[in-house]
Amino acid sequence: MKKRALAIRHVHFEDLGTFDPVFEAHGYDIAYADAGLDDLSAIDNAAVDLLIVLGGPIGAYEEDYYPFLVAELELIRKRLAANRPILGLCLGAQLMARALGADVRPGPAKEIGWGPVSLTEAGWAGPLKHLGSDPVLHWHGDAFTLPDGAERLAGTEICPNQAFSYGPNVLAFQFHPEAAVEGFESWLIGHAVEIAAAHLSPDILRREAALYGPAAAERGRLVITEWLAGL
Known about the structure:
This protein is of the alpha/beta class. The chain has one domain (about 5-230): Class I glutamine amidotransferase (GATase) domain (Rossmann fold), CATH 3.40.50.880. It is about 30% helix and about 25% strand. The strands form two sheets. The chain has an eight-stranded mixed beta sheet with strand order 2-1-3-4-10-9-8-6. A two-stranded antiparallel ribbon has the order 5-7. Strand 1 (about 5-10), helix 1 (about 20-25) and strand 2 (about 30-35) form a beta-alpha-beta unit. Helix 2 (about 70-80) packs across helix 3 (about 90-100). The longest helix is centred in the C-terminal third of the chain and has 28 residues, at about 200-230. It starts with a strand and ends with a helix. The mean pLDDT is about 95.
């Protein structure tokens, strides 16, 4: 029998990317719920085998501006309390951290582009070991404190908390191991204002995606494959 994976999507181009075929290979039917359009309060947690919370260019603390975040945070809190499998990517990780009582706020600097993360001992001992010290895609300005009871798995100098687990069923990434080179041009278009404000070159980001993206995608697939096997 097929399992059900539901991904909460905040902007259309930040989807499951290279993770999509991995979930399908593990027997998941994938559906999307679009934040701000679909009623997130109507989602039945018990009917979803795996919840994935994707990235987006808003703050996890901005429910005054984006009221759907209230329902999204409540869905995540209930999911975590029930110890049901949940995966968070970028904004998704920040929302999970906030739901676990951590602080989320603007970081000391934006981290946009390709670069490595430093794995902790726990990171090297688990699925993230496949990342090694090779570049991954970073695209965030906010950061979170480590939730109580969570295991820190990776960090960078700018952002010490880049990935965490909360038992075997919960995994969160501040960076983007799911990013696909094939869809990267949509990132450049969708984040054009942020790129310009940060004085970054779309052409450099594009060239680096072509250089680092294929290998990063394969490592990301190995990470998520091992994590799914351990659920």
